[in-house]
Write a structure and sequence with these properties.
Largest sheet: 3 strands, antiparallel
Number of strands: 5
Radius of gyration: 18 Å
CATH topology of one domain: GMP Synthetase, Chain A, domain 3
Strand order of the largest sheet: 1-2-3
Number of helices: 3
Distance between the termini: 48 Å
Helix content: 25-40%
CATH superfamily of one domain: K homology (KH) domain
Strand content: 25-35%
CATH class of one domain: Alpha Beta
CATH architecture of one domain: 2-Layer Sandwich
C-alpha cells in the first residue's frame, strides 16, 4: 500500500487599497494581483475573481476526476467559462452562476459527463457556493 502525504497549502488573502488607486490582493503564498474598479478597465474586478476561482477549481477538479476514473490517458484538457446573473436590487449579489465546461480528448459523451459531474463534487469552490459559509467579520 502506498502512503500518500498531502501537503496543505496556506489559504487566504489580504486586500489593501489607499485613498487613491486600485486595490491589490496578496495571497498567503505571496501571489499578487491588482484589482480594477471601472466598468471598462481591463483586468480583474472582484466578481471576475470569484468567477475565475470557480472556473479554475472546476478545470483542476476535472483533471483529478479524469485521473480517478482512469481516463487521464485520453483526457487532453478542460475549459470552464463562468459568468453570472447579478441581482438588480440590494443586497447586490450573484443570483445565478452560468457555467459551460468543455472536456477535450478521445472520450465518449458519457465519460465527459462523468468527469464533469465528479469535478463539480470535488471542487471546493463550487461546494462552498452551494452551501454558503458563515462569514466571521472582525474589526482590527
Amino acid at each position: 500500500m502506498v502512503d500518500l502525504k498531502i501537503k496543505k497549502r496556506p489559504i487566504g488573502a489580504v486586500a489593501e487599497v489607499a485613498r487613491n488607486g486600485h486595490p491589490e490582493v496578496t495571497s498567503r503564498t505571496g501571489g499578487r494581483i491588482g484589482v480594477v474598479t471601472g466598468a471598462s478597465e481591463e483586468g480583474f474586478n472582484p466578481l471576475d475573481l470569484m468567477f475565475a476561482s470557480l472556473s479554475a477549481c472546476l478545470v483542476l477538479s476535472a483533471r483529478i476526476a479524469a485521473s480517478k476514473l482512469a481516463l487521464l490517458d485520453r483526457f487532453d484538457g478542460a475549459s470552464a467559462e463562468v459568468t453570472g446573473e447579478k441581482s438588480a436590487e440590494e443586497p447586490y449579489r450573484v443570483e445565478r452562476f452560468i457555467v459551460k465546461i468543455r472536456i477535450d480528448g478521445n472520450l465518449s459523451e458519457g465519460e465527459r459527463h462523468q468527469i464533469v459531474h465528479m469535478a463539480e463534487e470535488i471542487c471546493t469552490v463550487s461546494n462552498t457556493l452551494k452551501t454558503p459559509p458563515a462569514i466571521s467579520l472582525s474589526i482590527g
